[in-house]
Amino acid sequence: MSKAPKVPTSTGMGDALLHELRVHQIELETQNEELRRMHDELSASQARYFDLYDMAPVGYCTISKKGLIQQSNFTAANLLNVTRTALLQAPISRFICKEDQDIYYLMRSHLLKNGLAQSCELRMLKKDGSLFWSQLAATVEQTQDGEQVLRLVISDVADRKHAELKAGALQNAIFNSANFSSIATDEKGVIQIFNVGAERMLGYRAADVMNKITPADISDPLEVIARAKALSTELGTIINPGFEALVFKASRGIEDIYELTYIRQDGSRLPAMVSVTALRDAQDAIIGYLLIGTDNTARKAAEEALLQAGALQSAIFNSANFSSIATDARGVIQIFNVGAERMLGYAAN
Questions:
Q1: Is the model's pLDDT at 303 over the cut of 80?
Q2: Sign of the C-alpha dihedral, residues 333, 338, 339, 342?
Q3: Half-sphere exposure of 25 (CA within 13 A, CB side)
Q4: pLDDT above 80 for 312
Q5: Which residues are paired to 276 by β-bridges?
Q6: Distance CA 273, CA 264 (A)
Q7: Fewest CB atoms less than 10 Å from the CB: which of 64, 74, 89, 108?
């Protein structure tokens, strides 16, 4: 006799359903936990993006091929003194000084032509019309739509540029001073720069000496020979008379200031105090020399006057025609000249 099939009880079905619900609940909780983790990572990533992009110390802009700003960070907006929204779809040329726009377009042309990163320095325009010096670094990329865009990095270099301009103006003022001669040569000694001070002091025009002669050719040849001999003895090596003798110490990194007599174009002599410095490139190789000279005529005249005065004083003091007696504060004789000896009969000692 066959048995009837076993029918699940309602209690058994409930248990199975409850088990399935619990499994499903655990799966949902796991999924929720994963979603929360992904959300936290996304938030952290957005915060990093904000720090790295929006709050970067330089301005970032994305420029369309038509020259319109498609995207920018807060720093770019702050540099230009506008809101970030005001930058969107605005032409980048609006924020570049009119006189410097050719610099930007030339950089852009090179970038689009060869695809290599480019950079330039130009003046940018703030909302209030004031200008500031900036350095632009640009790269070109292709979007998913196949459109070329420029990634622009804007750095404020106003402080550096102003310092450079000030230093350049000061350097020009010093170099072009008429109060001292500045003569720059190449590594072989041939004159490359002859400033207005050198022209005034020595009487040569720059065009007469540049790329033609060395400073040794306008120096007293006997002094140059004497200097070569003295340096050869001092340094224990043979130094040839000529330009080498004028710059030998400087070429070895030794500070060198000495007296030298220049021969002016009219043949007259100019006593000078000359300071020599070796000019070096980034690899520390000598590329030339700078000789700065000051007119030593007044000092030489003063020294000569002093020598003459000393000789006269000595001649007078030691004259036999009158007595010269000097004492200390207590009246004790300290000096008794030959005139006193002759007139009074006492020996000085």
A1: no
A2: positive
A3: 6
A4: no
A5: 256, 291
A6: 15
A7: 89
Q: What type of residue is 23? A: V
pLDDT at 311: 58
- Picking from 263, 251, 242, 241, the residue whose alpha carbon sits closest to that of residue 288 is 251
- 135 burial (CB, 10 Å; 0-12 / 13-18 / 19+) is middle
**What φ, ψ does residue 267 adopt, rounded to 5°?**
90, -10
Sort 262 into a burial class: Cβ within 10 Å, 0-12 / 13-18 / 19+: buried
Instruction: Print burial letters for 308-335: b (CB count within 10 Å at least 16), e (below 16).
Output: eeeeeeeeeeeeeeeeeeeeeeeeeeee
Which amino acid appears at position 252 of this protein? R
Q: C-alpha distances in angstroms, 193 versus 90, 165, 258, 295?
A: 48, 21, 21, 19
- For the record, the structure tokens of 89 come out as 């779809």
Q: State the Cα–Cα distance between residues 310 and 328, nearest whole angstrom.
A: 22
Please tell me what DSSP assigns to residue 78: H
> What does DSSP assign to residue 96?
B
Mean pLDDT of 51-72: 86
Residue type, 65: K
